[in-house]
Amino acid sequence: MLPDCVASAIDLVFVVDGSGSICDNDPNFEYGKDITCDNWNFILKFMGDFVQDIDIGLTSTRVGLVTFATTATRGWELTKYESIFLFSSSLETFS
Q1: Within a 13 Å sphere around the CA of 48, how many CA atoms are in the beta-carbon half?
Q2: I need a labelling partner for 89 at 20 to 30 A (CA). Which of 31, 42, 49, 80 fits?
Q3: This prediction's pTM
Q4: Nearest of 20, 28, 18, 2 to residue 76 by alpha carbon
Q5: Domain map of the chain by residue range?
Q6: CA distances from 23 to 27, 31, 47, 64, 73 (A)
Q7: Residue 39: which of 58, 17, 60, 59 has the closest Cα?
Q8: What pLDDT is stored for residue 18 in this prediction?
Q9: Which of 77, 71, 86, 87 is nearest to 18 (CA)?
Q10: pLDDT, tens digit, for every residue of 18-60?
Q11: Domain range 3-93, its CATH number among 2.60.120.1440, 2.60.120.10, 3.90.190.20, 3.40.50.410
């Protein structure tokens, strides 16, 4: 990442497919048995990797999430996470 981008404050919103179709092509996923699939875990890992060098905070970069399937749903507000630690920790339990 470019150094100028790391120091800039932005509002970053991930818009993520939360429909069942992301698990359709996962041969290890069983509907009704598994809670999450490899594709969903890949999305969470991407989000974590993407922000790892960004200063997350209420006065720096704020991070939000919108998931969509048939309709869009706010996953979390831009003001929810005040640090990279809190954001990263939430990804480990988000499903």
Answers
A1: 16
A2: 31
A3: 0.79
A4: 18
A5: 3-93
A6: 9, 9, 18, 23, 19
A7: 17
A8: 84
A9: 71
A10: 887 888 878 888 877 777 788 888 899 999 999 988 889 888 9
A11: 3.40.50.410
